[in-house]
Specification:
Elements (H helix, E strand, L loop, with lengths): L7 E2 L1 H8 L3 H9 L7 E3 L2 E5 H12 L3 H12 L4
Antiparallel strand pairs: 1-3, 2-3
Length: 78
């Protein structure tokens, strides 16, 4: 994972992270395939790891092993 991407991203950055347009990003949220944003610093943001988990699920990846890896790297909060 590149260090370029912040842990918490505003809508345009999160859409860019997913390599889709903002409109497509919003459609994926409404469809329930991507997580909703959370208020952070008074503005809506998306957590990079939450996006990663959703993208892995969309791709059909083994999310259990990914969850284990995230816990190993970042602790129980991951």
């Amino acid at each position: 994972m590149s260090d370029k991407w912040p842990a918490m991203m505003k809508r345009a950055t999160a859409a860019q992270y997913c390599d889709i347009s903002i409109a497509s990003f919003e459609r994926e949220i409404v469809a329930g395939r991507l997580p909703a944003g959370v208020i952070f610093g008074g503005r809506e943001h998306w957590h990079r790891e939450a996006l990663d988990r959703a993208l892995l699920a969309i791709a059909g990846a083994d999310t259990d092993s990914i969850e284990e890896e995230l816990r190993r790297r970042y602790g129980k909060a991951a």
